[in-house]
Amino acid sequence: MIGNQVFVDTNILVYAHDPDAGHKHTLAKERIGELWSRHIPPAISVQVLQELFVNLVKKGIGHKEAAEIVEDYSTWEVVENDLELLKAGIDFVQGWQTSFWDALILSAAIRSKASILWSEDFNVGQIYDGVLVQNPLE
Fold first, then answer.
1. What's the rounded Cα separation, in Å, for the pair 30 and 27?
2. Hey, which of 16, 43, 81, 124 has its CA 20 to 30 A from 71?
């Protein structure tokens, strides 16, 4: 994986901060820790940061702490939401038969030039326009 850009989906980040997730919490925390030490910063999108904040608050993490966690991850490469990303996502919905929100994640991963997408929400092993889906919790 060294030298490859990794785009991280929301669910992996949520597990890393949710002790109630048991074994998934332990694995996600470990894998995210590995990403922090890489020479190439991981990629995420504004959508991922938004979803992360909402899910952390839902899980009982205070507003201030959730905001600090989001701020920490904003030091990674962040793909902005814009009209081009929206249009690419719309095209992906039909082309890849995904949900709209998953299509936006794929579009952001492609824009970040990621070769790997860490997620539980896609078919592991599938390649979407050059982006390989991996589940780092398996």
1. 5
2. 124
Helices and strands in the chain: count of H runs, count of E runs: 6, 6
Show me where the domains of the chain are located: 6-134
Phi, psi of 114 (to 5 degrees): -70, 145
Q: Is 133:123 a contact under the CB 8 Å cutoff?
A: yes
pLDDT tens column, 30-88: 999 999 998 889 999 999 999 999 999 999 999 999 999 999 999 999 999 999 999 99
Residue 116 phi, psi dihedral angles, 5° rounding? -135, 135
Alpha helices in 37-82 (DSSP H): 46-58, 63-73
Supply the pTM of this predicted model: 0.93
Q: Which CATH architecture best describes the domain 6-134?
A: 3-Layer(aba) Sandwich (3.40)
Give the model's confidence band at 97: pLDDT under 50 very low, under 70 low, under 90 confident, else very high: confident
C-beta neighbour count of 125 within 10 angstroms: 9
Task: Quote the DSSP letter at residue 75.
Answer: T
